[in-house]
Amino acid sequence: QVQLVESGGGWVQPGGSLRLSCAVSGSTSGVDGMGWYRQAPGRQRELVARFFLGSSITDYADFVKGRFTISRDGAKKTIDLQMNNLKPEDTAVYYCNRYAQPFFPWGQGTQVTVSS
Questions:
Q1: Is the CB of residue 89 less than 8 Å from the CB of residue 28?
Q2: What is the mean pLDDT of residues 23-48?
Q3: Helix (H/G/I), strand (E/B), else coil: 5
Q4: Considering all CA atoms of the chain, what is the largest pairwise distance in Å, rounded to the nearest integer?
Q5: Where does residue 30 rank: exposed (0-12), middle (13-18), buried (19+ CB within 10 A)?
Q6: Is the model more confident about 28 or about 49?
Q7: Which of 25, 35, 83, 96 has the highest CB neighbour number within 10 Å of its CB?
Q8: DSSP 3-state assignment of 92?
Q9: Which of 77, 35, 78 is nearest to 58 (CA)?
Q10: What integer pLDDT is reported at residue 29 of this predicted model?
């Protein structure tokens, strides 16, 4: 069974940067893409960024375009999310998973808090 472990969150002031990492263990055969999601208090989980295996195509939600970058390290089986110019509205718990259903079991996520 696939296990996803997110890390790298924390508190940062507006305009700051954080780099999140997602460690993937278990069999991922048949997976054709992965993504980062976030869920803010009282809101539904939303897709932030995704990539498609076998290509260089990446896709970003409008609210993070130009600020966030998704990348992967196949050897380490990690998926990273570089987040720059963070805004208070980016505050949420961030998760990684397949870019579309059916999802793997969700990890615990990593909290990102942006405030002054």
A1: no
A2: 92
A3: strand
A4: 43
A5: exposed
A6: 49
A7: 96
A8: strand
A9: 35
A10: 78
CA distances from 72 to 7, 23, 34, 78 (A): 14, 10, 9, 6
Rounded CA separation 82/37 (Å): 13
- Give the integer Cα–Cα distance in Å for 93 and 109: 6
Q: Walk across the sheet containing 18-25 and list its strands.
A: 3-7, 18-25, 78-83, 68-73
DSSP string, 34-79: EEEEEE-TTS--EEEEEEETTS--EEE-TTTTTTEEEEEETTTTEE
**Looking up tokens 């507006």, which residue turns up?**
14
If you average pLDDT over residues 9-35, what whole number do you get? 93
What value, to the nearest 5°, has the Cα angle with vertex 40 and ends 50 and 73? 30
b/e map 55-64, b = 16+ CB within 10 Å: eeebebbeeb
Dihedral angle over CA of 96, 101, 104, 110, nearest 10: 20
pLDDT, tens only, 70-86: 999 888 889 999 999 99
